[in-house]
Write a structure and sequence with these properties.
heterodimer, A: 385 residues, alpha+beta, 14 helices, B: 244 residues, alpha/beta, seven-stranded parallel β-sheet
């Protein structure tokens, strides 16, 4: 195991063109506080400020704006990678291009990512206006996401899967846009308490169960409907919503939550929604959160990237949830979609091999670079990489 | 108001440098490892907009260290503070240490500090103000069978700071010596200890807040003060049987 949390130094920053070189242990929150005062930010960020850059690179992370800004890799100009057999290598799209491709979304298996040079985007404002639009059922996510994509910076949906029948998955579409006129400034939202293992395990049992999840979701829906349709958040609050949601993770008890994230083609989403509506109930597992994002990208290697609808489901871990996850494995295969490898520590090798046609090519490239396969992980063992 | 940090790249030194940069102080950072100094300097410059000079020098070569530092500290700027979060321990320091290793411990823990102070003290005295900050260790509270030479050097350092305070306080300087408890750094990584480890960032905040105002000896975290009294009160007949 290698611990990179001490490597958080900013090596170079050009406030004129927004290029930032920093060590891979730098967190997204730290990067945010370096870049925003100069009027820059990093698009394609996952929603928790303590995620490190190295982690984002190795998992090819995405944000609520994939349809516009793609995955993390698009922002990377260069990487410094260390491997005992090769020393320190500087990877770019021109030099060691194959290794660059293999390392972005390479699950950390090509070596230790030391540092990265990133291309940031101009900040169009330090506050984000969030608009809420109601949607009647899960299937409506597709037309609404497509409709709002050309005119929004960020987009995601929230669905209540606790309601049965025709309004299964009713909820809201949220659009986010920089508020024009709000100049670049520190947004003051950077103080938060990190989520610790102790917090997460506070309750022995999950407080979100079959009895409580429906009222929980209904209450959320009510609160949302009662609040105004347009809200303004600081960019930090908007980009990193998880920072303020420690309580949500505590609700799942000491066994924690299982998140299943899948990317399915737009044309299969209707069938998928119908399958979920008919199939979910019989597992007796409450779905605490369901959310969709719109993806526009290319599939390649083991990256969670492509075009379609990205659906995430959160549910409490239990023996029953294992069976639900196996059901979702079949659903995503039938839909011709991708399960997110890094979200699910159970995802079996057969599912990955069935969904990711380039598994074998990833294996071959990895072995060609590192015949001894020095860098291994639970994932690489489970997926035989 | 330049601050000099000797031993800048390890746990407490790095935290002190960051805290001082946050306070807007230009810095001169000294460490043995250039690979750490260069990224550190650029990081502090980008994040806090302060000027940072670096000196790569081995604290065990205290004569060269003092000379290099004397050259590196800008002569046209006032020196606000000298801080010495510098130190080293050795495996097998149980009374059987090789002479070269024992000498190295005394050089790094004691002579590096006295040599640098010796060079820069005239400048501080002519300024008529400035702070000198040293760091001791709870390992030197009472001599025991481990860290033998290290504890001796740290106790000498404490005596040195007492003298330094006596010599320079009347000339406007403030001299502080902090006896540090367990810190959460790579020295203590993974070790099970009797008392909680302090976060070096918190210690750095505490030290920088009082910089130039606090004088004399202090224990950080504070609970080591009563612990020290208790430890010294244990009669020899009992203490010799303690294995810790």
């Amino acid at each position: 195991m290698q611990e990179a949390r001490a490597f958080t130094r900013v090596l170079h920053f050009d406030p004129e063109n927004g290029t930032l070189e920093c060590e891979a242990g730098l967190t997204l929150g730290q990067l945010h506080s370096v870049a925003t005062p100069h009027g820059w930010y990093l698009p394609a960020q996952p929603g928790y400020p303590l995620i490190t850059l190295g982690g984002c690179i190795a998992t090819e992370a995405h944000g609520k704006n994939h349809f516009r800004d793609g995955t993390f890799r698009r922002r990377i100009l260069a990487l410094d990678l260390f491997h005992p057999a090769h020393g320190v290598l500087r990877l770019t799209r021109e030099r060691h291009a194959d290794l660059f491709e293999l390392t972005c979304g390479g699950l950390g298996l090509t070596g230790q990512i030391l540092s990265a040079t990133l291309a940031l985007d101009r900040l169009e404002g330090s506050r984000v206006e969030v608009r809420r639009i109601p949607l009647g059922r899960l299937e409506e996510a597709v037309p609404l996401l497509e409709e709002w994509a050309p005119k929004s910076r960020f987009l995601y949906t929230w669905h209540n899967l606790s309601v049965s029948g025709a309004s299964f998955g009713r909820g809201f579409l949220y659009t986010g846009d920089f508020r024009s006129g709000s100049g670049p400034a520190r947004d003051g939202g950077e103080r938060f308490a990190p989520i610790t293992a102790e917090d997460r395990g506070r309750f022995r049992i999950s407080l979100l169960n079959r009895a409580t999840t429906a009222p929980f979701n209904a209450a959320y829906e009510l609160v949302q409907r009662a609040s105004s349709t347009v809200r303004e958040l600081s960019l930090f609050e908007f980009l990193f919503p998880v920072a303020r949601k420690v309580a949500y993770f505590e609700l799942f008890g000491s066994r924690g939550l299982h998140e299943y994230q899948m990317l399915v083609p737009v044309q299969s989403f209707g069938d998928l929604a119908a399958t979920l509506r008919r199939g979910l109930a019989r597992f007796g597992v409450p779905i605490a959160l369901a959310s969709c994002k719109l993806f526009k990208g290319e599939r390649s290697l083991l990256r969670f990237d492509g075009t379609g609808i990205c659906l995430a489901l959160d549910f409490p871990s239990s023996s029953r949830s294992e069976r639900l996850a196996e059901f979702l494995d079949r659903v995503v295969r039938e839909a011709g979609g991708l399960p997110n490898i890094v979200k699910d520590s159970r995802l079996p090798r057969e599912t990955v091999e069935a969904c990711y046609p380039e598994v074998e090519s990833f294996r071959r490239s990895l072995r060609a670079f590192d015949p001894l396969r020095l860098y291994r992980s639970e994932i690489s063992e489970r997926l035989a990489l | 108001m330049t601050c000099v940090v000797v031993g800048a790249s390890s746990g407490l030194g790095r935290a002190l440098a960051e805290e001082l940069a946050r306070g807007g102080h230009p810095l001169v950072l000294v460490s043995s490892d250039e690979r750490d100094l260069v990224p550190m300097a650029s990081d502090l410059t980008v994040r806090f907009g302060v000027g940072v000079r670096t000196v790569a020098a081995d604290a065990a070569d205290h004569v060269a260290l003092a000379a290099a530092l004397d050259r590196a500290v800008p002569s046209d700027q006032e020196v606000a503070a000298l801080l010495f979060p510098v130190g080293a321990v050795e495996q097998g320091d149980d009374g059987r240490l090789e002479p070269e290793m024992a000498e190295r411990l005394v050089r790094v823990n004691l002579l590096s500090v006295s040599s640098v102070v010796g060079r820069l003290l005239p400048r501080l005295i002519s300024q008529g103000r400035g702070a000198i900050v040293g760091f001791g260790s709870v390992a030197a509270l009472r001599g025991r069978s481990s860290n033998v030479v290290y504890a001796a050097a740290k106790r000498s350092l404490e005596s040195y700071f007492e003298s330094l305070r006596h010599a320079s306080e009347s000339r406007g300087l403030s001299v502080a010596f902090y006896v540090l408890g367990y810190l959460d750094t790579q020295l203590s990584y993974g070790r099970r200890l009797l008392l909680p480890k302090a976060d070096p960032r918190q210690v750095a905040k505490r030290v920088c807040r009082a910089l130039g105002r606090e004088r004399g000896r202090h224990y950080v975290p504070w609970f080591w003060y009563p612990v020290g009294i208790l430890l010294r009160a244990i009669p020899w007949a009992v203490f010799r049987r303690l294995d810790f």
